[in-house]
Specification:
Layout: H1 2-28, H2 34-43, H3 56-82, H4 90-114, H5 123-149
Helix pairs in contact: 1-3, 1-5, 2-3, 4-5
Length: 157
């Protein structure tokens, strides 16, 4: 059951986080399209001008990698809850999302450092935004697992 919760919750939370980043990208006209950034970097297809790849295969690689990582992190959240760390509620979802976002910010920064040709984006803005996007992930994952698990306390406690 925990694996099923991780898959369903991980997919929902990753979709919400991705939508959050795409909406911000649309609203601010900054490059924050995580799937295209990840796909471009994984396939090493940064364009000569530093822009992101438009290739369909780049988007496929980025999408698959992003959602797989989302499911893996959902497994970590669920393992923490079931080992007695925190509750499946909004407060803990926020805290886990914040911690997850800080870890993601650090890992993305390292990825940009070691990549032979990273895309030219406003890295500081992107990394800061990732923290907030992972808080969205944490809240959505927690709420999804809460609905699936049905603990005997309210979500907003």
């Amino acid at each position: 059951m925990k694996l099923l919760y991780a898959v369903i919750g991980g997919l929902a939370a990753t979709a919400a986080m991705t939508a959050f980043l795409y909406l911000l990208s649309f609203a601010t006209h900054r490059v924050m399209k995580v799937i295209r950034i990840l796909g471009t970097m994984l396939t090493n297809r940064t364009q000569p001008d530093g822009s992101l790849s438009e290739a369909t295969s780049t988007k496929v690689y980025g999408t698959v990698a992003h959602y797989l990582v989302g499911i893996i992190f959902a497994l970590f959240y669920i393992a923490l809850w079931h080992s007695g760390v925190g509750l499946i509620n909004a407060s803990w979802g926020f805290l886990f999302g914040l911690a997850h976002g800080l870890i993601a910010m650090f890992l993305w920064y390292l990825f940009f450092l070691v990549h032979p040709r990273p895309p030219l984006i406003a890295l500081r803005t992107y990394l800061t935004t990732l923290v907030f996007a992972h808080i969205v992930y944490g809240l959505v994952l927690t709420y999804t697992v809460y609905l699936l698990d049905r603990p005997d306390y309210p979500f907003w406690s």
